[in-house]
Structure formats: C-alpha cells, structure tokens
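The record is kept unedited without comment:

——
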Amino acid sequence: MKKLLNFVFFVAIAFMLACCGKSEPRTVAEKSLDCIIKQDYRGCLEYVYVPADKQEEKEALINLIEAMMKSNKTKNALKGKAPESYEFVSEQVDDTQGTATEVFNIKYSNGKTEQEGVKLKKEEDGKWYLEI
C-alpha cells in the first residue's frame, strides 16, 4: 500500500511539473487576459518578450502604464470599457513561423462583447510571448 501511494504521489508530481513548465500560446494569452481583468498591468507585461538589453525600457513602460491607469482621466475614459471576462473561441498556430493567434470573446463592463485576437510569437527560448 505504501509503495502504491508513493507511486501515485510521484506520478502526480511529474504530471504537475510537465503541465506547469510547458509554454502554450493559449495559456499565455489567458494569463495575460486574467492580468488585464485584474488591472495587473505589470503582470501582463511579463508575458511580453523583451530582450535582456531592453529591460530598463520595459520597466519605464510598466511605470508609465501604471501611472496612467491610476489617473482619474484614464479611469473615466475606460468607464464601461473595462474587460470583465473572456471566452475562448479559436486558435491558429503556425509552428513553422512560430506565430499564433488566439481568438476570444471579451465581455466588457458596459455589457458589450467583442471578439478580439491575441497575437503571440515563439521566441528563441522556446516560450510563447505576446506580440506587440
């Protein structure tokens, strides 16, 4: 019985590691949308590829976006247009080009739903990133 429990535990851990370590375009798109819904723009930009020599520019962009989103002018401009939820529609992956487009129906706080495409690119490190 103890050997069986150890085996089940080992398989469960191996499965979790395999699932968490894999970068898939849909997963990256969903995580970035979750960050936008939570208004975690710093978290969202973690899914954007930035070369090592451009990290300072990335940090400046994050600070600028956070400052803009805190201002009342920006909040009022986005009133009713803040995304509340999303639903996956379709996926187009081109492994030869290393590109993907994930399509979602995004529901906004004003009740409207729009279909949006999230473009991703597979970088040299083998991970998928948002394409800007």
In short: The radius of gyration is 19 Å. The CA atoms of residues 38 and 84 lie 9 Å apart. The longest helix spans residues 2-21.
